[in-house]
From TrEMBL:
Gene Ontology cellular-component terms listed: endoplasmic reticulum membrane
Name listed for the protein in its UniProt record: Cytochrome b5
Organism: Drosophila erecta (Fruit fly)
Organism superkingdom: Eukaryota
Keywords on record: Electron transport, Endoplasmic reticulum, Heme, Iron, Membrane, Metal-binding, Microsome, Transmembrane, Transmembrane helix, Transport
Record-annotated Cytochrome b5 heme-binding domain positions: 2-78
Gene Ontology MF term list: heme binding; metal ion binding
Family: Belongs to the cytochrome b5 family.
InterPro entries in the cross-refs: Cyt_B5-like_heme/steroid-bd (IPR001199), Cyt_B5-like_heme/steroid_sf (IPR036400), Cytochrome_b5 (IPR050668)
Transmembrane portions of the chain: 93-110
PROSITE patterns (UniProt xref): CYTOCHROME_B5_2
Main location: endoplasmic reticulum
Length: 117
C-alpha cells in the first residue's frame, strides 16, 4: 500500500529547497523539478506545502505534464485530510428540478388536451 501523508506534514515542506505539493489528493516532491518547470520556479514556490490542485488544473497542463507527475509522487494524502464531496451535487439538484418541471408541464398540457375533448 502507498504511504499516507498528513496535510500537516505537507505544510512543513513549504520552501523552494524543500517543496511538496498536493494535486488530486496525491503528494509530490517537486524540489528538484522546480528548476526545470517550464512555468517557472516561482509558480511552484507559491503553492509550496499546500494543495495545488486548482492551480495545476487552471493552467490547463498538457497530458505530458500530468504524466510527469508520476516521477515526483511520494504518497497519498491521508484519508482524514481529504475533503469529502457532498453526496448530492448542485448538478444533481438542478437536473432533478428540471425533470420535475418538465414532468409537471407535461401533465398540465395533457390534462388540458383531455379536458378540451
Ligand atoms: C507540480 C507539478 C507540476 C508539473 C509536473 C508541471 C509541469 C509543467 C509542464 C510540463 C509545463 C509545460 C506546458 C505543458 O506541458 O502543459 C508547465 C507549464 C506551466 N506550469 Fe506547470 N507543472 C506543475 C505544477 C504547476 C503549478 C502548481 C502551477 C501554478 C501554480 C503551474 C504553472 C505553470 C505555468 C504558468 C506554466 C506555463 C504555461 C504556458 O506558458 O503556457 N505548474 N508545467
Amino acid at each position: 500500500m502507498s504511504k499516507e501523508i498528513r496535510l500537516a506534514t505537507v505544510n512543513e515542506h513549504n520552501k523552494a529547497t524543500d517543496l511538496w505539493v498536493v494535486i488530486n489528493n496525491k503528494v509530490y516532491d517537486v524540489t528538484k523539478f522546480r528548476l526545470e518547470h517550464p512555468g517557472g520556479e516561482d509558480s511552484l514556490v507559491d503553492v509550496a506545502g499546500r494543495d495545488a490542485t486548482k492551480d495545476f488544473i487552471d493552467v490547463g497542463h498538457s497530458s505530458e505534464a500530468r504524466e510527469m507527475l508520476k516521477k515526483y509522487y511520494i504518497g497519498e494524502l491521508a484519508a482524514a485530510d481529504i475533503k469529502q464531496k457532498s453526496p448530492i451535487s448542485c448538478r444533481q439538484v438542478a437536473l432533478a428540478l428540471g425533470a420535475a418541471f418538465i414532468g409537471i408541464t407535461l401533465v398540465y398540457v395533457i390534462r388540458r388536451g383531455v379536458a378540451r375533448n
